[in-house]
Amino acid sequence: MEVxxxxxxxxxxxxxxxxKARRYIRLESPDESEAAAEAARGMPILFLGxxxxxxxxxxxDGAVIHLDADxxxxxxxxxxxxxxxxxxxxxxxxxxxxxxxRGWSGIENLALIPGKAATAPVQNIGAYGREIADxxxxxxxxxFQTGRFRTFRAEECRFGYRHSIFKEPEYRDRFLITxxxxxxxxxxxxxxxxxxxxxxxxxxxxVRPGPLDVFEAVSAIRRRxxxxxxxxxxxxxxxxxxxxxxxxxxxxSNRYPDMPAYPLPxxxxxxxxxxxxxxxxxxxxxxxxxxxxxxxxxxxxNYGGATGREIYRLSQDIVRDVEDxxxxxxEREVRVIPPxxxx
Length: 343
What we know:
CATH topology of the largest domain: Uridine Diphospho-n-acetylenolpyruvylglucosamine Reductase, domain 3
Shape: globular
Number of strands: 20
């Protein structure tokens, strides 16, 4: 375990913001969780993976717990099912790549989502019609309040759209996820209903795609649409796609016949936030060192010298403008630290 004081987090957040943690604690093994809890005693705690879904407004006056424990994926075959045990410190994209190389199906749509495996259930990561909730069996976590490990079954995780129990006030910044168990399929049929994914596969001439085909198609789409944080600071999708009821959808579609929308089982519709932001005129907008990416309106970027507060102010302006134009209030997908008063 490594402990540092007043430590710069610039390398640990994908916006590249040069903020400091009062104390930084890096774990090389889940077995160090108890020692980490002792080192963080009496301080606010923030669990950090790759910092790919976070916006720091200021220095963090507390302890950042960074699980950096990689390790092998262990698996067990049960008929056509594969049960995977994944270390929380493992890079998520590496997990996806390893499974598709073996021909296993279930998470190929989640390629190139940045972050550690431990953060996947927290955010209920999802893309191209698939969520981690679809395949998660359980996760093991260390409780920084009780000093004990606890296993959460999938049904206990309260999964929703970009939501889990680990984001709720009682549980946030309390449980450090150390292992995931996923259930994949040896001979499963990949999910390819999502429009842009289906078109990419058609463009490649693939009629009966396997997991590797979907993985490569999703990776290609994401590389075209989303900027690389190693080159330009960003946290990927900054806003959630809003969900509206049927009446609101009909009203909007009458005004904007070209508006894309995805029907949900409960009769509501999901509207792409990127389309709303682009339609409102923000795509490619730049204000000093902050801006909206010219290829993907859902991505806010740091061109080099921006502060977290400047990025946040731009997001506020976008939220207000989209609400004025469409009557839809966007929610941030990115976690803001510390939380602004209105959040």
